[in-house]
Amino acid sequence: MASSNNKRTRIQGINRGIILEAALEVFSTYGFRGSTIDQIAEKAGMSKPNLLYYFPRKEDIYVTVLENTLEDWLTPFRDIDPAGDPIEELRKYTVLKMKLSALRPESSRLFANEILHGAPAIQDFLKSNLKRLVDEKANVISEWIAEGRLAPVDPYHLIFMIWATTQHYADFDVQVRAVMPEQTTQASFFDDAANAILTILLNGVKPR
Amino acid sequence: MASSNNKRTRIQGINRGIILEAALEVFSTYGFRGSTIDQIAEKAGMSKPNLLYYFPRKEDIYVTVLENTLEDWLTPFRDIDPAGDPIEELRKYTVLKMKLSALRPESSRLFANEILHGAPAIQDFLKSNLKRLVDEKANVISEWIAEGRLAPVDPYHLIFMIWATTQHYADFDVQVRAVMPEQTTQASFFDDAANAILTILLNGVKPR
DNA sequence: GAAAAACTTGACTGAATGGTCAAAATGTAG
DNA sequence: CTACATTTTGACCATTCAGTCAAGTTTTTC
């Protein structure tokens, strides 16, 4: 049985990958409750019992997908460099997050949905790992402010502001597209958005 | 039958209100698919068939709740005054939206969930009513910029930025609370957040 | 190349849930 | 008070869906 054996076989590696890819699409579109195993199985091109052979419960698939996407999401945040130039570091981070919103909106939506419904599957993660990381980066920002290299703003709210704004373009994609003038929703769209955001944000935190 | 008769009776008025209140809570917590009619009926203190007497389909309850909350959400936006001081108008709007996030987070979450899943119930509304309104306000901002009373930023992205940031405190409440330092999640929390946001945002759009 | 292990699936089960119905209870108009 | 309309509900139905099972097929191992 797949789960009882620690070592993964060749086929297990392949099929788990296929399943997780299909599951990300389905879960991010319909939410946990709104998705069915049949849907995921069909998208993955295998029978339901076969899928359940790899992930015995629906929740197992969901949690695994969620954990994987969390990593993507956090990597650029971890990479904020205390030794770098504050404005430049914030610009870099914001641009990377916008890229994520552009290239992997499903991940963002999956995560948003989880939080929106009270984060039942990742409460602990938020309170331990994520909190630790945010505290660390908030400290970095506080030091930048103390050194006069950034305007005095609450570092936590600054972080939230970047998160909120960048994720908005993935999570609220439908609304953004519905509301934006026609031509604007073109190729350069995410670049334009990033520029606009950065103008406001960086002017807002530049020391004066 | 309740729906065939245009004029609403006393009891209909009362019970529809009770149902919609219960439904907002349930739908915003679990999403459309994740909520059951039984749950709503129990919270409303009546039997399921009785509830279905007032709203024959689950979707009818959902759409009605959603429409009601949309109005709350848009009123302060409509009230942005072209004749007012730009910075002051943006401050006022941002503060009002933060208040909504603080006082009625369920509405915000219900709406976020709907958009996140592709806005199946309000696509048309977004593309017509909301778009018209946003275009109008974007024009107002463009004029402010032309008059040199605001830094030159894309008005649409400015609007999105305010939406994203203010709603974050309702929609991502769980994450915010998990990550913020303990004492900070206190009484003045939303005021602090509003101040931090406004500092960055208004500095970011002040003409220089 | 045979035995064992890993993989795959059609057919099924049981619980949850949206919605129906007919009969009973309550409210209301004259 | 009486007749009529409105409201309420227990019992029920049909469907959807997570998860099981036993029997078959393919892959790996020696």
Kindly describe this structure.
The structure is a homodimer. By secondary structure, chain A is mostly helical. Chain A folds into 2 domains: about 1-55, Arc Repressor Mutant, subunit A, CATH 1.10.10.60; about 55-205, Tetracycline Repressor, domain 2. Chain A contains 10 helices and no strands. Chain A has helices at about 10-35, 35-45, 50-55, 60-80, 85-105, 105-115, 125-145, 155-170, 175-180, 190-205. In chain A, α1 packs antiparallel against α2 (about 35-45), α5 runs parallel beside α8 and α5 packs antiparallel against α10 (about 190-205). The longest helix of chain A has 25 residues, at about 10-35. The relative contact order of chain A is 0.10. Chain B binds a DNA duplex (30 and 30 nucleotides) through α1 and α3.
Strand residue content of chain A: under 5%
CATH topology of the largest domain in chain A: Tetracycline Repressor, domain 2
Shape of chain A: globular
CA(first)-CA(last) distance of chain A: 64 Å
Q: Give the chain pair forming the largest contact, with residue counts.
A: A-B, 58 and 58 residues
Gyration radius of chain A, in Å: 20 Å
Helix and strand content put the structural class of chain A at: mainly alpha
Can you summarize the main beta sheet of chain A?
none
Question: In the residues of chain A, how many domains can be counted?
Answer: 2
Counting copies of identical and different chains, the oligomeric state is: homodimer
**CATH top level label of the largest domain in chain A:** Mainly Alpha
What is the typical, i.e. mean, pLDDT of chain A?
A: 93
CATH architecture of the largest domain in chain A, please?
Orthogonal Bundle
Question: How many helix segments of chain A?
Answer: 10
Q: Which stretches of chain A are poorly predicted, pLDDT < 50 over at least 5 residues?
A: 1-5
The CATH homologous superfamily of the largest domain in chain A: Tetracycline Repressor, domain 2
- Find the count of extended strands of chain A (DSSP E, 2+ residues): 0
The helix fraction of chain A, in percent, is: over 70%
What is the H/E string of chain A?
HHHHHHHHHH
